[in-house]
Amino acid sequence: MLMAIFILKLFSIIAVTTLLLSGYLKFNPMGMQHALFALPTLLLIYANDILTIFYFIQTGREVKDSAEEENIEMPILAKIRKNHGTASKGATVNLLLITTGAVFAGFTVFPEWGAKTHGFVALLCSALYIKGTISSYKYLWLNSDYMNEFAERFWDKVADSPNDSGSGELE
């Protein structure tokens, strides 16, 4: 799942950059006009950020359930919770940014608003989206490191527990 999110994030950055270039340079990527290319780009971005949010929800729930089951409280749990909160907020902000960019920039195609307003709004929202997506890579890597550290410490605690809940061997 994590690799799929990384790949989708890379594709979404490429798609947003291509969308911006198609608007400014007047070329048609994959034979699609700028407005038609925006729709699959938005779907890709939504799928990407929704997967990111659900990934953090699912991994957070797994860690919480495992720690509660064995009555384990480790400093790493606080780090995982903080990272999950930050990453989920970042993905939510990304969804709001790209939605604002799509809706507001879409409205500016009316002649009285002008193409320059459309370009400015699209560029601003896309730049913020790309910045947020690149920073989300950091949270995904941190989450992977924290989950590995938690798994190592958790296994040590379960395997060495006095209530014989772990045997120290994988079944």
Strand content: under 5%
Write down the overall mean pLDDT. Answer: 77
- The beta-strand count equals 0
Order of helices and strands: HHHH
Task: Let me know the largest β-sheet.
Answer: none
CA-based gyration radius: 21 Å
Walk me through this protein's architecture.
There is one protein chain. The chain is mainly α and 171 residues long. Helices cover 81% and strands 0% of the residues. The protein contains 4 helices and no strands. The chain has helices at 2-25, 34-69, 75-107, 115-159. It is elongated.
Features:
171 residues, mainly alpha, 4 helices, 81% helix, disordered C terminus
Helices and strands in order:
Layout: H1 2-25, H2 34-69, H3 75-107, H4 115-159
Helix pairs in contact: 1-2, 1-4, 2-3, 2-4, 3-4
